[in-house]
Amino acid sequence: MIRTDLFNLEAIPGRGKGLIATQTIPAGTCLISEKPLFTTAEIRSNDVERELVRIVKALPKDSQRAFLSLHNNHPGGKEPFSNIVRSNGYPLGASSEVGGIFPNIARINHSCWANCQQAWSSTRKQETAYAVRQIEAGEELTIAYTIGGPSQERKSRLKEFFGFDCRCEICSLPADKQKQSDEKYTRAAKLDDSIGSPKRVKTSPNLALADCHALLRLYNEERITDNRLQRLYYDAFQICVLHSDQARARVFAKRCAETRAVCEGNDSADVVEMLAYSEKPSSHDSFGGSTKWKQAADAVPKDLASDKFEEWLWRVSGGEKVVLIHTERN
């Protein structure tokens, strides 16, 4: 499924070809859902270049043309087919060692403030691209090839692995605003590392949850709406479920499902799984590792104003600023 009614393939000065929105596209819209032309699982020998030539020659002529028209980050090399795959391939899932070529999604260029998210759908067996925020007519569709860290770190990775100098909206900020943005991205990376510490989550859950809340504030300030948001909510869910707080766990599970659905669709297996946890948090493998925050699933408050609900959810004091993004209960 290719929503050609929503975008056109156009030449973009300094960026090769890209996809340009032809009308306003709401967040959560599926733009592309496509099967791979082929996957690396079809490679049968150690001579990868020869194998790729064989695979591509076996494709229909239009598919051959689609593959050969894709960008090569290392032109002029001795392995042109391999380099096209390295430049455009996506794994079939976050932990998969198998990659695939998706010629339409491969046309989506990079931005550090991307408006789309690509993901493998295990349900559809297709790679998908969704709008993660509203996209206006004339705006280029973009995804983030790399995330996290200050601008110079991102630029360095993009130059090394993809061969271009990033001039996106975030990397082209005036020096003073660039410094502010870099400080936030650096802080976000440190918070993410801290949240990922099993020892901290187990022994200091209040601090780990506070880190999640601080990270959410940074994401909100930097207008980040991609899959980093659902990951944050999943981390908060895990902290609460580990310590037997089913009430907060179910709220975070639902928020994780909602934000992930924007990036991957309602039929995403992970969305379905998180919705199930929002109904029964105790079914998660980590549930009950501690009873420090023990609380029943039906203990979610129903009569609090939005700001007070967020204070309850994040376990913050009344004077601390809370992030008001979601107001829906459990």
Automatic annotation (TrEMBL):
Name this protein carries in UniProt: SET domain-containing protein
SET domain segment(s): 1-146
Cross-referenced Pfam families: SET
Matching SUPFAM superfamilies: SET domain (SSF82199)
Record lineage: Eukaryota, Fungi, Dikarya, Ascomycota, Pezizomycotina
Organism: Venturia inaequalis
UniProt superkingdom: Eukaryota
